[in-house]
Structure formats: structure tokens, C-alpha cells
Amino acid sequence: MPFCRLNMHRFFVLPSWIEDDTVTLSGSVAHQIRDVLRLQAGDCIVVLDDSGWEFQVELTAVGHERVSGTIQRKVLGQTEPRAKVTIYQSLLKSSRFEWILQKGTELGVVEFVPMVSDRCVIGSVDEVSQHRLERWRRIILEAAEQSHRARLPRLHAPVLFQQACERARRADLALLPWEEERIMKLRAMLAQPYRIPSRVQGKTVVIRRPFSIHVLIGPEGGFSGREVDQARRYGITPVSLGPRVLRAETAALATAAVILYQLEDM
Fold this sequence. Notes:
It is built from seven helices and 15 strands. By secondary structure, it is α/β, with parallel strands linked by helices.
């Protein structure tokens, strides 16, 4: 039987739902298969356990509370980018932030970190409720299934700007798009060789392809000068996205797309 993943519905499931050559689905996944898609025994789906593997499953029983199937084939997913882009997004109005999660997942972003910066509409990480985080995870899940991702992007708990800088500094490359940057262009930054500290005897090695790229994106009003200076002290490089001023949600997606394209992951 050919493994035609493009024509099959895809579902991220708990690893415990896969046992040997059988899959047992319940909850909202079973409801979608039975009541929304109206699939029947003999139909095929793809299930993913967030390990990078994809399992082609032929349904054997579609019940009221459980759906079961038999694994026909297992293949390693081919849709994950080699470059690992993390977006630290300053908190925006709800619909705009959700747009970034959805479209960023489709593009290939691997991590999202909500961030509180000086000009955010939300002034504290405590203002982000657990209900909102669950909604955001659901948006990422649905976008990952739709765009044929093999791994689920991670959604981290909200952090303050300084915490974001401390985390981003550990990446191979850390960038901060800023509308007032006049010298360093994003494309030029990506085209140059990168000097990454080696873990062997404290030496420095030169590579032309960073593995992890962390990007800090400002809120509607942009980053303050204080924040840009602070980011520089952490080794984060401000870059220009060009002569036009972009909305925050546009800047996040444009930056991710340029990075993945330049590193041949688009």
C-alpha cells in the first residue's frame, strides 16, 4: 500500500496511545474522526507522537468513545527545518499574537516564547491566564497538523525581557529586529560566517550555518532604546528589516521567513 500522506488527515497523539502495531484514539481526536470527518473502518490517517516519526494507520474500529487502528507504515518526517528558529514575541492584542503562532508554525518556527517588554499591552507575565496558554497550544497543534509538521513547536511560559535576553544569548545567533537600526541588515547578518564558541578548550570555531537562531520581536510600539542597549550587552544583535516600518506580527513572520529562506529551509 503506498504511503500517500498528502491525502490523509493528520493527528498529534499521546505516545501512550501507540502500542506495538496498534493505535487507540479517544477524546477530541476520536470525536473529530467519528463526528466531523465521518471516517470509517478501512480509512487511513497519519498519527504523530511528536518524536519526528509519522505512522500511517488503517482504522479498524470507529466507536462512540474509542477509535482504533493498525499501523501500516512508519517513516521519519521530512518537514522539519534544520535551522531551529525561536521567536520571542512581545505580547500583543490577542488576535495578532494568535496569528503569529499559527503562521509561524506553518513557516517552521520551533519555539514561541511570549515576552513582556516596556511597551506591551500586558504589563506582567501573571496577566497571561492558563486558559489563554491552552488556547495558544491548541492553535499551534491545529496549525502543525494542517501544515504537515512532524514535531509540535514548543510554547513556553511568558518571560520578562531580561529573562528573554538571558535565554537568547545561549543560541548560536540572537537577533533583535529594530526599526532604528541603520547599519546591520538581516540578510547581511545571515550571509556572514558565524563564530561560535567551542566547548573544547574554550576555542572558537567558524561555521557558516547557525543551528539555533533566537529572534526578539517588539510590541506595537517597538522596543525602547533602553531595551535595545540591554540586548546588546547580552550579545544580541539589532538588525534592520528594510526601509519600511512593519507591524509587530508582520515583523515576526517576515524575519522567520527570511531566516529559513536564507538558510535554505524554505
